[in-house]
Design a protein that fits this description.
The chain is an alpha+beta fold and 918 residues long. The protein contains 17 helices and 33 strands. Helix 6 packs across helix 13.
């Protein structure tokens, strides 16, 4: 994608070097010329060449004098200005730090401070169709009083969210750069102070725009950026982080005082008219900032290097159009991308070959720019010519020489750049005049769509979305919190994302050979756009406790691959059984702004579902995602001086019609999404216990939870401070076993409970310690072990024996006192009995409060080796009972109940009064 196509010759600074190389081979005439006439001729020629150098060295001398003055200590004094933004002011200061940079500025909002510099190379780069601008943004941990948590305390590679802010800075600056300027330009931005209240991203965009305006870079207008939030029904400019927590909209807008250059944002199904209102509010704020910055630039700005701009002459455009015009019209009618690309490449080579044969292309590498060759080998216009027959002092005949016309010389790279611009011109002209695009569609027509789900049998969810020559393979993976993505931020808090989308764009998707490695900035940006577009349709964590990862691999690309990722990702989520709220589709809009230039009436032409060539040659790339009700994500880049609100309104309304068509095609997906959990997806059980019981599950140093995982074979057990426990397992049996152990660990024993078949864990001189539930032991004193007197507990029992006990006391420390004697036939009747209650392992019911004994049978809890539990009503007498799986009473969970009740393998959540298994 070309953000600012520039087709022109090399910079002017190359010219003196070129002329010097051309002058070196010049030698005097071989004949001996003793006359003063020839000597005068040489002197005049040298004088002429010297004058030609002088006219190009004047600027260099002036620049050197300015640099000398700066190095001598002449510096701009610090200057600051307060600019109102929203309900507060931002402070802009220049001249204090970064004094050797071409442009440097610090900008402050609250206690958040951004420092930004702009520098440019002394020597211009080779001409290309892409302005050599690089942006680097870094958040220093010291800005929030922290250091890096790793071994190396220096900040590492750029994080994803820093890359996204780099893109936010780059995209609005690029359209303001003038064609023909090839000095490499670098924007560096650092967060020096962060207060946790005022976000730095919009501030960094404004800081970069101000620094660029203060520098020598010849950009067209001042750029500024703001964020707009929607809280209730009120739009807020540059809201704080706390305010954004309640905002329905997150819009970042950048532009000039006259037009909008870039917007990006996310919202919760916001209608088009509301979005336009937000854009208008942001545009007004940007306009006010730009006016104040212009006053600052007039006082502190450096002279712009307009004299370094060099564009190709119109003659080259005419030559290319004459040679390739008719063939170019035919090539642009080729529908498929690869054949069209090869045909254009062949035609370009043909144009270069023809121009070379005619002598228009210079073979000298020193020609970095378009240059008219002077008649260096001919006589000067003021040369004295000896009339035929007349003899000079050297007795040498000088005949008049006829002047030859030397054609213009162009470098090969100039021809390639001009050919690309001419191709763009012919493409735009075809669309405007004929109303037909390269693939034969009308401006509002979308491409053919095909989609299918369930392609990958072992994946939890998969979908292949194809839009003509653009295709995305989306895969969904479900997991627990261990699969969540950890986010490093300036605030000293761990942040985890339970949903994230990762986008990859391999070179094979465009039929090319390229680098494979870390994701590019473009891949990170497109992935975040698709992720934020799908975020609003995900269920809350309480209803669906999974971490969700979506991978979108672009397998074919010819425009709108990020929007294809939105469509494919939505279908893959449905195929994985994620209960999404609705379907989401995305579409990319393009534009031809000045249609009058290409035979139209001047009204901007909006294109739906643009191709790659229409993106590169057009004036806008506007991506919009949502459903038929509202928008969830949007991103717009402008490659011209900006657009107005009426144009944006037209594009949004046309995008809504396009989304409806895409959603209709997605509903015809074949095979359709399964809409249920895969049998290979993990099971997650959510239960809640009293918060003070969490430590019993974790154990000392995490030993207990590790032992439960090893014993039961579950994948993970996650505990939270609020008492929520999540168990992740591959099968139902291990899940139930771990659930039983945790239930027993966190149960609330009540005096009068009877526990059957309990194991003696250890014996002391004063009694035996009996395990009434896994991990819960109580003391059965020697006096309570038997109805008869015992001298030692070892006389009647040993470790490993099983017996029935009754809970007769809980002391202040929570220690349990048990009695076997109370259950023997000759024991005295207890004065306290239990109220009938029921409990089961499956439902995790809790123990009801005790009431005085009214003669009703008591509840007995039987615990076996396999971890199962059961309770039964029985009279107060000892009897043999079969070993059963049982569970002691547990705390009553507090999770919200739900009306839906679906099996775990059908993809629906089972929500009971206390826990949920998915």
């Amino acid at each position: 994608m070309l953000a600012n196509p520039s087709f022109h010759g090399g910079p002017l600074q190359f010219i003196p070097t070129v002329r010097n190389e051309l002058c070196c081979p010049i030698q005097p005439h071989r004949r001996s010329l003793a006359s003063s006439t020839l000597q005068n001729r040489r002197n005049r020629r040298r004088s002429s060449i010297s004058r030609s150098f002088t006219q190009f060295s004047i600027r260099t001398s002036e620049d050197v004098s300015v640099l000398a003055a700066d190095s001598a200590g002449v510096q701009v004094s610090p200057f600051s200005v307060r600019i109102p933004v929203g309900d507060r002011h931002i402070m802009v200061e220049t001249g204090l730090i970064g004094r050797q940079a071409s442009g440097a500025v610090t900008i402050r909002d609250g206690e958040t401070i951004i420092y930004t510099t702009v520098c440019l190379a002394d020597v211009p780069s080779e001409p290309s169709d892409f302005f050599p601008l690089s942006v680097h943004y870094q958040e220093r941990f010291s800005a929030a009083g922290r250091t890096s948590g790793g071994f190396f305390k220096r900040e590492g590679r750029t994080k994803d969210h820093e890359v996204l802010i780099c893109r936010l800075i780059d995209r609005p600056l690029r359209p303001t750069m003038l064609k023909g300027f090839y000095h490499e330009t670098q924007v560096l931005s650092w967060v020096l102070s962060y207060d946790g209240l005022h976000p730095p991203d919009a501030l960094a965009v404004t800081a970069a725009g101000i620094a660029m305006a203060l520098s020598e870079v010849p950009n067209s207008e001042v750029v500024a950026g703001v964020r707009v939030g929607l809280i209730g029904e009120k739009f807020i400019v540059n809201p704080t982080i706390q305010e954004m927590e309640n905002s329905k909209l997150d819009l970042l807008l950048a532009g000039t005082k006259n037009a909008i250059l870039m917007i990006e944002g996310y919202c919760d199904f916001l209608p088009e008219d509301k979005l336009l209102e937000a854009v208008e509010v942001g545009q007004d704020a940007v306009r006010d900032i730009c006016k104040d910055v212009e006053a600052l630039v007039q006082k502190c700005g450096k002279p712009k290097m307009f004299d370094a701009i060099k564009v190709p002459p119109k003659e080259l455009y005419k030559l290319v159009e004459e040679i390739a015009g008719s063939e170019l019209v035919e090539v642009l009618q080729i529908k498929n991308k690869i054949p069209r690309r090869k045909a254009l490449s062949s035609l370009e080579e043909n144009v270069i070959s023809i121009l070379a044969e005619k002598g228009y292309i210079s073979t000298m590498e020193a020609f970095g720019s378009t240059e008219t060759m002077p008649d260096l080998l001919e006589e000067d216009e003021d040369e004295e010519v000896v009339v035929d027959g007349e003899v000079d002092e050297g007795d040498v005949h000088i005949k008049p020489v006829t002047r030859k016309t030397v054609p213009l010389l162009f470098s090969e790279v100039d021809v390639k750049l001009v050919f690309k611009e001419v191709t763009s011109k012919f493409l735009r002209k075809r669309i405007v005049e004929r109303g037909k695009r390269s693939d034969g569609r009308s401006p509002q027509e979308i491409r053919s769509i095909d989609a299918g789900c369930g392609l990958l049998p072992r994946a939890h969810g998969s979908a292949l979305f194809t839009r003509d020559e653009t295709q995305s393979l989306a895969v969904v993976t479900l997991g627990d919190k261990k699969m969540a993505q950890k986010i490093d931020n300036l605030v000293d808090e761990d942040e985890y994302k339970r949903f994230y989308l990762q986008y990859s764009f391999p070179p094979s998707c465009v039929g090319e050979v390229g680098r494979i490695g870390a994701p590019s900035r473009r891949e990170i940006g497109h992935g975040m756009l698709a992720e934020r577009a799908l975020q609003p349709i995900l269920p809350p964590e309480d209803d669906f406790p999974y971490t969700v990862r979506v991978e979108s691999t672009v397998t074919d690309s010819n425009g709108s691959s990020s929007m294809a990722s939105v469509c494919g990702g939505c279908l893959a989520l449905q195929d994985a059984g994620v209960p999404v709220k609705c379907s989401i589709a995305g579409i990319a809009m393009g534009m031809v702004l000045d249609t009058q230039e290409f035979g139209g009436d001047g009204t901007p032409l909006i294109l739906s579902d643009i191709l790659g060539s229409e993106d590169a040659s057009g004036d806008m790339d506007f991506k919009v995602a949502g459903n038929d009700v509202g928008i969830t994500a949007f991103q717009m880049d402008i490659k011209v001086g900006g657009i107005t609100l009426p144009i944006m309104k037209q594009a949004l309304l046309q995008a809504k019609d396009g989304r409806k068509q895409v959603l209709a095609e997605m509903s015809k997906c074949s095979p359709p999404p399964s809409r249920k959990l895969s049998k290979y997806a993990p099971l997650i059980h959510v239960m809640k216990v009293k918060p003070e019981k969490i430590n019993l599950i974790i154990g000392s140093g995490g030993k207990k939870v590790k032992s439960i995982i090893e014993e039961t074979g579950v994948e993970a057990i996650e505990t939270q401070d609020d008492g929520v426990v999540k168990i992740t397992a591959k099968n139902l049996s291990s899940l139930e076993k771990s659930k039983a152990i945790i239930s027993n660990l966190t149960m609330v024993p009540i005096v009068g409970d009877i526990y059957r078949n309990c194991e003696i864990k250890s014996i002391a001189p004063y009694g035996a310690f009996v395990e009434i539930a896994p991990g819960r032991e109580g003391l059965c004193h020697i006096s309570e072990l038997s109805a008869n007197w015992l001298a030692k507990a070892e006389d009647a029992f040993k470790v490993g024996d099983r017996l029935d006990v009754k809970l007769i006391e809980i002391n202040d420390k929570g220690q349990l006192r048990l009695s076997r004697r109370a259950l023997l036939p000759d024991a005295e009747p207890e004065k306290q009995s239990t109220k009938p209650r029921s409990a089961s392992l499956q439902n995790d019911n809790v123990v009801s409060p005790r009431t005085p004994d009214t003669g009703k049978p008591k509840k007995a809890v039987t615990v076996s080796k396999d971890g199962s539990a059961s309770e039964s009503a029985e009279p107060l007498k000892e009897k043999s009972v079969p070993i059963k799986v049982s569970s002691p009473a547990t705390d009553k969970p507090q999770l919200k109940k739900s009306g839906s009740n679906i099996s775990s393998r059908s993809g629906n959540a089972v929500v009971s009064g206390e826990s949920k298994v998915v």
